[in-house]
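README: folding subset

This subset contains proteins for which both the sequence and a predicted structure token string are available. Records are stored as plain text. Below is the entry for Biotin transporter BioY (274 residues), shown exactly as it appears on disk.
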Amino acid sequence: MRHKPQTRSKVLLADNGVDIIGDVHGCYDEFMELLQRLGYEQTRDGTYRHPHGRKLLSLGDITSRGPYSIKMLQFFHHHVTAGLAEMVDSNHGWKVARWLDGRPVTLAHGDEKVEEEIRLYQQEYGPKKASLLREQSRRLLFSSPSHMIIKRNEQIVAVAVHAGIRDDYIGMDSPAVYTFCRYGDVAGTGPDGRPIRKEWAKERKVTSPIIVWGHDPHPEPKRKNGTINIDQGCVFGGMLTAYRYPEDELVSVPAKRNYSGLTDTPLTRFKADD
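--- output ---
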């Protein structure tokens, strides 16, 4: 078991633009379709680059529930290493990272699919390549910052975070900040075992900088008090969404199907409330 250095917030310069991607959850085919829609092109070294020098930024939860967690881990390992992309910490990423680190965690809620993928990968490619994959993935997930501060012309213009952040937490470094960024403002667990989520965005008193977040699936992107949620539940049969800065533009592609195996999903619960 190895120890993870606490990862602070990080600054991303967006002078050439940034494309922030919502929760992928192993939906690799939709992710590649979205990259094409955003104008990224594959180069000779196999990486995807934007002709205008834009950067990709993931809101985390690239694995679990869906079919291609390994492909997503490999993509972001290569692109973060090459300086072409960034990714913030997330609840599923944190759980998978601790499992890869040999810690006693229970893989559930789709995380067990990562374990199964890696088991099959080892059968096909052997233990040496599987060990390298595990270590690269572990380092990627553990090195992801709690939140990303986006600057343009030396000004803070946006913050990218997985589940949410209070304004007084921006740029701060503490266990409370990491927990809020991974899980949002949680007020316990309901009788059905689901977390009771407080609407932190509703309570926000300012509207700048823009806070772009995911984690809580909504059928459509949701704007409130200078925040925007771009988790549209792709793995549940919804959409995969990107937020483009500075254009303030949303680009989405539809899911090919519901990969989760669940009939009662966050998206169906929204429809039931209509």
